Amino acid sequence: MTHPHDIPNQPRRLLGKRIPLVDAKRKATGQAVYTDDIRLPGTLVGKILRSPHPHAKILSIDTGKAEALPGVHAVLTGREAPARFGVLPVSQDETALAVDKVRFIGDNVAAVAAEDEATALEALGLIEVEYEPLRAFLDMEQSLEPVPEELRLHTKTVGGTNIHKEVSQEFGEVDRAFEEAAWKKTRDFRFIGVTHAFTEPMCTLAWFDADDRLTIWSATQVPHYLHRALSKVLEMPMHRIRVVRPCVGGGFGGKSDPFPHEMVAALLSRKCRRPVKILFDREEVFYSNHGRHPSKIRFGLAVGKDGTIRALDIDALIDGGAWGSFGVVTTYYNGVLANGPYRVDNFRYHGRRVYTNKPPCGAMRGHGAVNTRFAYEVLLDEAAHDLGLDPAEFRLRNALPPNTKTVNEFRITTSGIRECIERAVEASEWKRKKGNLPFGEGIGIAGGFYISGSALPIHWDDIPQSTVHLKVDLDGGVTIHSMAAEIGQGSDTMLAQIVAEVLGLDIGFCRVRTHDTDTAPIDLGSYSSRVTFMAGNAARQAAENLRARLLRAAADLTGYPVEVFVLREGEAVNVTRPEIRVPYLEAVRRAMKECGALQATGSYRSPPMGGKFKGAAAGLSPTYSFQAFVAQLKVDLETGKPRVLDVWAAHDCGRALNPLAVEGQIEGSVHMGLGQVLSEAFLYNGGNVLNPNLCDYRTLSPTETPRIHPILVETNDPEGPFGAKECGEGPLLPVLPAVANALYDAIGVRFYELPITADRVFRALERQRKRRAVKDLAAR
Amino acid sequence: MTRTRILRLKINGHEREVAAEPNAILLDVLREGLGLTGTKRGCDMGTCGCCNVLLDGRPVNSCLVLAWDCEDREITTIEGLLPEDPGALHPLQEAWAETGGSQCGFCSPGFIVTAEALLREDPEPTETRVREALSGNLCRCTGYKKIVEAVLKAARSGRGVEVGS
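Above: the input entities. Below: the structure tokens describing the complete assembly.
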């Protein structure tokens, strides 16, 4: 099959092939270097003193005894670096360490750098802090009340409350659509928080060296935002700060903010001029959180008698914890991302994000869209059931077509939702199974819709969102410079594949250097599922620019016009006379004659799009991914434990540049989504995290994870690099409601609260048994 | 106060001497004392398996083992699985790379040494057996599918038990 994206006269060699990740061997041998694996001479251990109070004024901090302890090299308090930062310019509400008050148990109060861990911990114990406890806001509803200023978590809140952000949007005529609907229902859904649970704890190594420059190695998804935040907090120009991103042991959004501990390590190092490493223990990782917001969502759905969706009316209250983080975006995403994958003409959304005295919430895989998606798809299932429609057929009837605009002016280009539904239905044998499985076994379907990169950059400036530089020297190797953060999703491989494909080279010619802000051009980082689309397009453009130089060189060497040459299999070949060939290295040498090593640049910026109303930019993306999943499960009727057996996961990824990597993203997303629907819960006892470890915070183990069947749907996006769009987040969305809908099919019970654990299912079965018994009795 | 002792440890087939206090944890001795950073620290409480190494051929959470208890015992870390032939990979490592068993890769060393212990015991395990053997290891990236495939592939290659210490 040929695609409009194919390179003329050049058979595809790498793209579309199952290519092992370029760092796979290093990772399988233990040679991959993560931040904590870096050893610098004289490195000190940095430790952070944490707040025992959920909300309290800091009256005084006495660091005298800690400073006097032998082996302690620096002690830091918040007042020494009060500049505020945050990932979003509109929510600069964090400081390196608490300045006047603490906002959650585990908040950062003071820090030390010492010769070893024992000394650092001893020093923390010697720091004397006097607190005046304040009323703690632990439930979202408490944060809606107007309160005196000292009880507000931050200075910028809505109307004197602890509401961080409130948004309202309405399109069409929602009330009228509800009045005229043949079927309508409004339900309340509750979602507990979940967290990323990446395997590598946060780690940062900072070295303020003799040249007065700061180098920071950090496990981060967003080196560029970290770079900016460090500059602000340290009050140092960016050019004197170098951010290095070693291998990152999983992110999923949990390493996509600049973090206080990164500021603290840098500040401590500046104070004592020694390298300082801060490595979190697992408990600290939970205090740092930034996981998915707990939420309460009231979801109203109206359906016409022809089985079309008429209106959505959504109200979301989301728990942001102590800081802003990505929360303004989250607040919008909880509503606006319900505008796909089905056509909706009447849409209303009211969302509020509140501050509470708990560890902050932020971006997590499927950011902002997951909980609303659950509510939506469960209600769709109810509607289909009540209206006597097949849930898959019902969704097909409402599928958003390609090349359209949603009511809130999302520009839809490719849409694979129809094919996703059809292929998931076929692969799962839906038609044979649906309604025909014995009691206790069930099958469910759900759809999904996600952005493929946020079209609007966080900082509203004119620079491209992704830039890629290439360098080729006499050795012929192509060095790819980019700041797109490889976090395990395979972005380094994606860049190498694209560049090698365009240049007609073996992938081994490419050397990917995406870890150092000193050498790589700016890329906004690995979040919002933007990297393949944006950095991939930049890489393609850079490689095409380089190719033009090599083809020119081949033309100069042979005397034939440049247009007849293509690069393939390591040669420039004249397609009109294939015996005329110039080896790649000769073309490189010739092209270098003018100015030495070859350099080429490519960049990507989203095209203008979107409406003019308030909040119009939220959720805009150059393209969107679509999903439809079918889940099949069996409930243990004795214990209530639901066991998911199979998930058929059809995902429209535009074009699978590397099916091996795309499958990996889908499989991982399914696993993470299953965790949220079945077992994961970020628990509190008051303001205390109750389960800050991977034993009590339960992700699914190898034996609990079902068979996952990825189905790649390729719509060949016209603006994606070689047709590709995202595959890292969208595939998480449908699995949660697909499981809930399968549970209904299995036992006839709906669940509106997550996680759906065995005890909840057991209680539901008990209620069902009692109801049946009463009914039987009455019938007698 | 401290009673630091020089331990003689047999690691990856070599005798190594390292100073360790009585409460020193094997993981710390490997990473900090001996620079064997292929073994990862994920949780410090035996829940994630990132720090797994083989102790006399059996997988253990090295974060839960006292270094003093490891004298006169064979310790195998991920570094020790590499065959002597330069440039060659252990069949599990080869399979891991080819099937996509690693994404972020942080859990891979722990998984691979655990899988090695399984294949030594059962060179032709069923998928269920593989999943059970790996159930003390957590991965957050892959959904385990390609990890299980990698182990089965290495087993099929029939060499999973021949290489390594």
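Note for the figure: The domain at 5-81 of chain B is CATH 3.10.20.30 (Ubiquitin-like (UB roll)).
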